[in-house]
Design a protein that fits this description.
Length: 200
């Protein structure tokens, strides 16, 4: 199993929104320099919809809501304003993740991989967690950050060894790690509010 080193920023590793003074948070400069893997939880979903576990069946999945599409577009624009490079973009095949990834990629290529699949869509959850760990431990291309788009129930066990509460990793949040093969070092979780505050 890959080694996971955890370096908490604030309490559980959450970056606070930027201060009203307009000071640029430290994490912005860190990510502008590249060298990190950013695991994004898909944007806000329509909770009236239920998952069936059938990949490729959009009608049988919980999809992005109109609010979620707007959130993903706003987060994509915020990352662009912050000049944070995101390449390559890899995603779970579940539509709420792949739709989010397509928006975040801003017209660039998106790789779909079962390494990031949701727990509802695989019979082998330990393998899904191991796949997420491998993806998190893979160093990015020079001067950029890999963006992974996936799900809370894979991210929590892969990074912390436990499930996370919705408030710990809300829809649209970003978990930042630094690959240190054969594992990775946890840096922080960025909430959507923190990203929007930093982008102004």
């Amino acid at each position: 199993m890959p080694r996971v080193e955890r370096r908490a920023v604030l309490a559980l590793g959450f970056a606070a929104p930027a201060a009203a003074s307009g000071v640029v948070p430290d994490w912005v400069g860190l990510l502008r320099g590249g060298g990190h893997v950013i695991y994004m939880r898909h944007a806000i979903t329509d909770r009236s919809q239920a998952d069936t576990g059938r990949l490729g069946d959009r009608a049988g999945q919980r999809n992005l809501s109109a609010e979620g599409i707007a959130q993903a577009r706003a987060l994509s624009a915020a990352m662009a304003r912050l000049r944070i490079p995101l390449r390559p973009v890899r995603t779970s095949p579940v539509f709420r993740a792949s739709d989010t990834a397509g928006i975040m990629a801003r017209g660039g290529p998106v790789e779909v991989t079962m390494d990031l699949v949701a727990d509802d869509y695989t019979a082998d959850i330990p393998a899904a967690i191991a796949g997420a760990r491998r993806a998190l431990a893979t160093p990015p291309l020079p001067a950029t950050n890999t963006l992974l788009v996936g799900h809370i129930h894979v991210f929590g066990p892969a990074v912390f060894g436990r499930m996370l509460a919705q408030a710990d990793f809300p829809e649209g949040a970003f978990g930042v790690v630094e690959p240190a093969p054969p594992g990775f070092r946890f840096i922080t979780v960025l909430t959507p509010a923190a990203v929007f505050a930093a982008a102004g």
